[in-house]
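User: What would this chain look like folded?
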Amino acid sequence: MSTMTGTSEIQQAVFEILQRILQTPCTPDMIDVELFDENLLDSFGVTQLIVALSERFDIEIPPATFERKEWSTPHAIVASVETRITQQHPPHK
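Assistant: Here's the prediction, encoded as structure tokens.
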């Protein structure tokens, strides 16, 4: 449950989580794959993803705030996670 700040670390962790949830290999060349349009992610998968990301990055992701367009691709998920980490765990000055 450690907080990560590097984009490559976050991206790697998101791919690991997606691979586990989707039960299909996830590689960096899939960064812009439309997860919903390709029927890779459904509502059950979203729930699993919210729980896994919340635990992995120690962030809160209330299901009511879920926006499909913000989670449409692995790239969008990484960006969303980065934003939440920054908002919920601002760097110490």
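The two ends are 23 Å apart (CA to CA). If you want, I can go into more detail on any region.
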